[in-house]
Amino acid sequence: MSEQNYKEWTEEQWREKLTPEEFYVLRQAGTEPPGVGEYTDTTTEGVYHCRACGEELFRSTEKFASHCGWPSFFSPLAGDKVIEREDRSHGMVRTEVLCANCGSHLGHVFAGEGYDTPTDLRYCINSISMTLEEKEI
Ligand SMILES: [Zn+2]
Predict the structure, then answer these.
(1) Ligand 1 is a single-atom ion; what residues have CB below 5 A from it?
(2) Which of 28, 83, 121, 123 is the 20 to 30 Å CA partner of 75?
């Protein structure tokens, strides 16, 4: 990873680095449609990196089949990898999940839904916000 301070990047820099679709989700807190993301049902072993800055965020070992239409994890790779903050957009109170390294939008986290996972949390993350590096964990 470079030593860039991604938190100081301008909108123009992000527009140059990302595709319009990536920019919409990562930098404008958009959401990709359900069921279309490339990692929705992926079970490949590996590490998911932030597509904006390259930071390691999630692992396949915490990914689970939520059937919600987006890649779902019950935990980030480490607690300090993501920032969670209240999101009151769209008339709902949700918890937004952002990359701690660059501040890009990843998705939302939902608690207490009854999934049979160690945390009962569902980190509902846009595929387009991540890049999977296939490797043994
Ligand atoms: Zn990032």
Answers:
(1) 50, 52-53, 55, 99, 101-102, 104
(2) 28
